[in-house]
Amino acid sequence: MVLVVVMGVSGSGKTTVGSRLAAKLGWKFYDADDYHPAENKEKMAQGTPLNDEDRIPWLCALHDVLRRGDSSGQNAVLACSALRKMYRRVLVSGASATGGCRPEQPGGSAALQVLFVHLHGPMEIIAARLEKRRGHFMPPELLKSQFDTLEPPSAPENFITVSLEKSLPEIVLEIERAIFQGEAFLP
Known about the structure:
The protein is α/β, with parallel strands linked by helices. Helix content is 43%, strand content 13%. It has 7 helices and 5 strands; from the N terminus they run βαβααβαβααβα. The protein has helices at residues 14-25, 38-45, 52-72, 85-93, 123-132, 143-149, 168-180; strands spanning 3-7, 28-31, 76-79, 114-120, 159-163. A 5-stranded parallel sheet has the order 2-3-1-4-5, sandwiched between helices. Helix 3 runs parallel beside helix 4. The chain is globular. The protein starts with a strand and ends in a 7-residue tail after the last helix.
């Protein structure tokens, strides 16, 4: 069972990389944006960054999605910003990471084994991508707040960092190698 969360700021390529990786491997793909409540999307569309009160219930719902995949033996890739260490803990542990949510299933409190793939790159490149993007609820004006919020993964988190300045095939290959060559799930 492999659960991968492709993470990073808005415009870093999470959905593109995550969906391509999942398609190549024949795994289930989830986009965290699809799980935002309408209130969160509206808030962001108005240029207001989300706070923890907005994010925690959303992250708990995403933990439940990952938990269901894990329970059913389905390898999965989730594209999710997961900007702060606390948010990543909620994705991995659900209710045991915060009092703000409850596990969906009885006995669902054991931490999930998740590989976080941090798509990392310069703000200028990501800003240029956001300027070209149409029809997304996240305006380019919120990019700085995302970088301000970002706490890059570090030990003991299970993660790899991949430069978003590489080509899409190179990024996907680097992630595959980490998964299948055993680099990703070292204790």
